[in-house]
Amino acid sequence: MKEFDIIALGELNVDLILNQIEGEPEIGKEKFAKQMTLTLGSSTAIFAANAAALGAKVAFCGMIGNDSFGDLVEQSLQKKGVDTRYLIRQDKYATGATICMSYDEDRANLTYQGAMDFMSLEDINPEIFKTTKHIHISSIYMQSGVKRDLVKILELCKENGVTTSLDSQWDPAEKWDLDYKTVLPLVTVFMPNETELKFLTQSQTLDEAIEKIRPYINAAVIKCGSRGSLLMRQGKQDRVQKALLNKNVVDCIGAGDSFNSGFITRLAAGDPLDKCQQYGNMTGAVNTTAAGGTTAFTCREDVERIGREQFGWS
């Protein structure tokens, strides 16, 4: 028996969210924001918190500083039911932070990567490869150390019988230099969205991108927003799962991460991939019923109730 169902390995930072801003920032000038929120940030943290809310036993492996922002990150994860024993506290680097300037339905982000950019395989407690069924890796372009050691990390997972998922996410530098032909054969489930996949494969269309990764995947699930998701498996026909659309969206922050949490929670529980896809579509939809990436995820029973009552999920 493994102690954890899932260990999330990825970026950690705080989000400083500014709303009701009086105009756009200008060099040499000062503007006012009427509202401010300081909260736990990062896609991987949303994934971990929501997987824990869905009933999985989740731990987090990431690097933060020995500072007040690091305290906020650690305490916030613990409040969400995520085990923090594998967090790495670092004196040399500060905890990462993102300033989110919100303008109506759009936003501008400025991120200081801090400690998360420096974590590498040598910092990671090797115990993680023994204590969990599954390791989810996310946001590798935000973490140059993890990106550099990704193949070694995935090989260690495979050697220890640990299944893996990878959501590489957006590349802020827009280099898209992940060697997917080497990486994807080592990944149990690849989980990009359609835009990221097209950039990664330097493709003009989604169909072109799909055919480029097809020879290298074990399985992949591609998130296509309001069109749902596409499941690819070696030796099987591709499977489209239509989206469960919310007519009264509060916001879509973290919807992709919430999809991931639902999919991987069911994968770690032993469900077949088509059932994981259905559940992921449901959790992604439920995410849009409340503000932020984790608010709708109080417990599995509530999430599934919302799925049934608002989206007809069964």
Describe the structure.
The longest helix has 15 residues, at 273-287. Strands 4-1-9-10-11 form a 5-stranded parallel beta sheet, sandwiched between helices. Helix content is 32%, strand content 24%. It has 314 residues and is of the alpha/beta class. A hairpin with a 2-residue loop joins β7 and β8.
Summarize the model shown.
The chain is α/β, with parallel strands linked by helices and 314 residues long.
Quick tags:
single chain; 314 residues; alpha/beta; 5-stranded parallel beta sheet; 4-stranded mixed beta sheet; 11 helices; 14 strands; globular
Indicate the percent of residues in helices: 25-40%
Number of helices: 11
Strand order in space, largest sheet:
4-1-9-10-11
Inertia-based shape: globular
What's the quaternary structure here? single chain
Low-confidence stretches: none
Q: Topology, pairings included?
A:
Blueprint: E1 4-9, E2 13-21, E3 33-41, H1 43-53, E4 58-61, E5 63-65, H2 68-79, E6 88-90, E7 96-103, E8 106-112, H3 128-131, E9 132-138, H4 144-148, H5 150-159, E10 163-167, H6 180-183, E11 189-190, H7 194-200, H8 206-213, E12 219-223, E13 229-233, E14 239-241, H9 255-268, H10 273-287, H11 300-311
